[in-house]
Amino acid sequence: MLGSHVGLGGKEQFLGSVKEALSYKAETFMVYTGAPQNTRRKDLSEMRIPEAAALMAENGITKFVVHAPYIVNLGNTVKPDAFDFAVEFLREELRRTAEMGSDTMVLHPGAHVGEGEDAGIQSIIKGINQILDADTKAHIALETMAGKGSELGTSFEQLARIYDGVAHNNKIRLCLDTCHLNDAGYPVKDDFEGVLRELERYFPLNQIACIHLNDSKNEQGAHKDRHENIGFGTIGFDRLCAITKMTEFADTPIILETPYVPKEGEKERAFSPYRQEIAMLRSGVFNPDLIEIIRREAEA
Questions:
Q1: Beta partners for residue 139, in sequence order
Q2: For residue 229, what are the contacts with CB-CB under 8 A and spacing of at least 6?
Q3: Residue 48 contacts by C-beta under 8 Å, 6 or more apart in sequence?
Q4: Which of 3, 49, 108, 202, by CA, is between 20 and 30 Å from 32?
């Protein structure tokens, strides 16, 4: 089930998000409920959700995922106000996720901001336990992280520690990011099957609610988190394409978050690669001229 990140905004709001996904010939998509760099959010009544739901139904889109903004941090034990705000915001964001029609909100677990792994993980557990209750309708999908700075969730063991500490962990899922896994040190390119076997020591594969399919600009273990376009990074097209064909993930949203392609000589202008990358993955054939094709088609 292939799709990409899409935008939200302007007069069409969520309806525009669905239209963007359809323009890429996507089967699914991922959206923020507002700008990822802030926590300002419109009232759901202004987001044209019924029209968006109708358009999805007309076009056979049955699943999409929401991504929480990456500026909230449940791992922060240094600033109690920041932690309290993150809890309140994420509780509301989960409600918005469900009311928009999704059962999955992807969340960066958090960062310990210098206080150490144990303190950060305990803070994340504390926060999620304040967010989830027996009546929560959507799941939190903890994303695998690259390990830059003091990020947590860079290993399956860390994610399992969080899972085990959450009271309502039946509402916890996983989001695997291929770039992040590579940068965290997992051999995505050479032994992805082995990565999944390692994951199964802690979680069954049916706990994977979403996959972020990204190539990486970095070598395995770099801990840098720099996404690259499909087939142009260190993971490579063959491995990433093979992941999209795995029967285990036939009904799992596989979401592209690859970089926009800048107009040659104009860094301020850039073009979405998603329609062409989705088509290339479906064909199973890598096109080394893809970047130039994207530029040419966008400027036509």
A1: 104
A2: 215, 258, 259, 261, 273, 277, 290, 291
A3: 12, 13, 14, 15
A4: 202
Q: What is the pLDDT of residues 99-113, one digit of tens each?
A: 999 999 999 999 999
Phi-psi region at 4: left, alpha or beta (left = phi > 0; alpha = psi -120 to 50): beta
Other Cβ atoms less than 10 A from the Cβ of 242: the count is 13
What pLDDT band is residue 39 in, cutting at 50, 70 and 90?
Answer: confident
pLDDT at 38: 78
Task: Please state the three-class secondary structure of the chain as a single string.
Answer: CEEEEECCCCCCHHHHHHHHHHHCCCCEEEECCCCCCCCCCCCHHHCCHHHHHHHHHHCCCCCCEEECCCCCCCCCCCCHHHHHHHHHHHHHHHHHHHHHCCCEEEECCEECCCCCHHHHHHHHHHHHHHHCCCCCCCEEEEECCCCCCCEECCCHHHHHHHHHHCCCHHHEEEEEEHHHHHHHCCCHHHHHHHHHHHHCCCCCHHHEEEEEECEECCCCCCCCCCEECCCCCCCCHHHHHHHHCCHHHCCCCEEECCCCEEECCEEEEEECCHHHHHHHHHHCCCCCCHHHHHHHHHHC
Q: Give the tens place of pLDDT for each residue, 250-286.
A: 999 999 999 999 987 776 789 999 999 999 999 999 9
